Amino acid sequence: MIEIDSVSKVFGSGATAFTALNDVSVTIRENEFFTLLGPSGCGKTTLLRTIAGFNAPSSGSVRLDGEDLVALPPYKRPVNTVFQNYALFPHMTVAENIGFGLDMLNRPKSEIKATVAEMLELVQMTPMADRRTSEISGGQQQRVALARALAPRPKVLLLDEPLSALDYKLRKGMQVELKRLQNETGITFVFVTHDQEEALSMSDRIAVMSNSRILQVGSPHDIYDHPAERFVAEFIGETNFLTGKIAGQEGETLRVALDVGGEIIARQPPGDPAGQAVTVAVRPEHAHFCAPDSAEATVTGEVSNVVYLGTDTHFHLVLSDGTPFALRLQNTPERAADAKLGDRVGIRVAPGVAQVLRD
Amino acid sequence: MAEPKGFNVKKQHGFTTIAVLCFLLLYTPIILLVLYSFNAGTSIAIWEGFSWRWYISTWGNEQVKEAALLSLWLAIVSSAVATSVAVLAALATTRRAPYKGQTVVFAIINQPLMVPEIVTAVALLIFFALIKNYTGYTGGAYLFIAHSAFCVPFAYMPIRARLQGMDLTLEQAASDLYGTPLRVFRKVTLPLLWPGILAGAMLAFVISLDDVVITEFVKAAGQDTLPTYMLGQLRRVVTPEVNAISTVLLAISVTMVIVYFILNQRKN
Amino acid sequence: MANATHRPSFTERHSQWVLLAPALTLLCVAAFGPLFIVAIYSFLTPGDYGGVVWKFSTEAWFNVFAERDIFDETIGFADAHLAIFWRSLRLALITTVVAFLFGFPTAYFIATRPAHQRNLWMLLIMVPFWTNLLIRTFAIMELIRNEGVVNTLLMGLGIINEPIQMLYTDFAIMVGMLYVYLPLMVLPIYASLERFDFSLVEAGYDLYANRLKVLRKVILPVTRPGIVAGSILVLIPALGAYVTPRVLGGGKRMMLGNLIELQFGQGRNWPLGAALAMLLLLIVMATMVFYVRAAGREGGGHG
After folding, report:
1. Does B42 score more than 70 pLDDT?
2. Can you give the CATH number for the domain in which A51 is found?
3. Nearest of A165, A229, A162 to residue A190 by alpha carbon
């Protein structure tokens, strides 16, 4: 539906030139909740603003249902934005804010009134209709901003870190709310965030961005379990990195001889690994304890720290060559094996669970 | 309040005394001036009882009435002109990235603030004399042009401050919601700018109303505003009539400034 | 992220010059442009009844500093002018220093009030400033006249028998300028002090400084930009003062502004008046450049 094709954006020129988007291509599908995830400065907001029309791309094209958007000013694009700071008009009431877009589209008064009422209902703000925007709470402002952007029934709703100004509890609530709204309206949502948890819990698909590029696009499950690059693995969740050399291929998986000793069977990355020497990513919860130096042990190490975290216990280990390794176990009542500080332990990683990285 | 004696970090010996002295110094002369405008006698030092006498005699003075009318007209017209051009200029100077020539633009707009008034006054005297020579026109328009010009920076300052404080995403949001540029300006920018415009207009009004130096140099013979009339009276015996005029002008200025203050407060 | 980028607005589509045109035209015609004509006039020959004759001459600039004896054509310093320059400079500087001595403690006092009170105190400073300068000068005049409140009071108390002549002295002019320009000193110093981080003062005390040393070594240096700005704001109008010396100096105690006016009135020497006006403008501009330098040097330290 939205096709972003080789879009680049350079701000400034000469020595001060800054590339905010570097040859970015991605396709966003109809009715999906699509998230642009990355650290601040990675270009995700620039990409969003390019779709909204506040940035003209230096090169490349942005098409919506086949129609080229680049030449259109923001007010001619069937795309609405929920701004990071909400940008509610302080001189208008809640209802006037929500009706603004329809008013600009010269819709009849009766239609505006009906839609505003419907939107107020949708975001549960009906009793606040005649309040000034300064008289409502942050969470309520957030809902008004959403309603205002949804009222003209845009083809795409763009959300620029809309939850970042809310406190933790409110944010959790709004995440559920946003997902519900997306389901009910069937509008495509493009959501920008730097919060990996938010991205994983809400999205149909995630694009991980870093350094003005998109590194990987996939479902939350894909992104988490099978990161393509070291950055993706590091940015989302916690990961152990083990270096080694490719020792053979078995279907979808690679056999890697680890530098620390031992062998691991790990998934092949999308595209070929750069060479014989590779990095393998292992999530802490994908590893288990076993007897040291036993046949099932992938590697062996020593417990250097134990951190109790309530739902989990976190074990910090040091492998025989000094590489740190983290292992996480859930604190279930029936959990048997436990390791103490200073214990020598074996670490088992099931075949095909770990991921060989592309770089 | 009896508080335990701790170490007051912010205290500096004697500063409060000087500050109090400073406020006394600022207000005593003005308060005395106002007070003696109600004096029944002609003295400006000996109180002889309360009376409206000087206000009544001032009201009957045709010259004062004429001067007051001119002052008022000048203030209204020049603040209106200055504010209008200042709004446009403020929009042009706040809504884009820095560019070459910006300093020159600022220097021109703020010229009346930076150059001593006497210099501008002399410059206008010479310039308008030249025009008079060529065109033969000697009417009152010169005064209106001069006042409009030196009021511009005063109107410009609060409008620019307001624009700079304005959240640009509001305009983007309006544009995102299908507002064409003109409608965004009318529906979002202008309503939000309104307090700044009002504040600027009031400052310009007060500045025009109070001006002495430029007016004195530019005015045609026989033309007088209230301040130049009062300056002219200096040569004669000063009666509390001058105090009465001053008190009225003071009341107008103080009211305006307080309204301006309140408008600025609401912004925050 | 690059947010300071595309700003779609009414103004962007219509060239900024169209929007600037009315203001710039008005100011160029009736404020900025005529300054150039003054510069030209300072190089012309005076007409017999005011005005100028369009003949190039440097006589006016010569006359600013020097004079020819009418009888023997010898050249000497224009003592009368130099005395007036000296008075202008001296009174302006004294006014600035005294304004600082009053203004800094006052600004400090306001900046150390509770936050919600500060704006009200500043309003009290600004109200006199926005009221008519002439009226405020009148108020001072009435106060210090021989028949004024001060003398009447002193005589009434038996401290003096004769009124002290205060009006029409340099002292009167200085008091008048102090009175009208004091708010200009308080305003920028207050702006500096309000942002001032008082934990710096705590650190000073912690490191064994006493109150005076904290003031001298911590507060004054950090608020220097405000002090410089305030001094400039007082110094410039004081140098060009016209109304105050005219009312309080009584025509005898002239400052540069009055000397300029004289050339366009009774003096009928427009080129000399123009040259004097240019001189004043040059002094003011030099002061401004000094300020920009001084402020620029400080600029780095304070975000």
Report:
1. yes
2. 3.40.50.300
3. A162
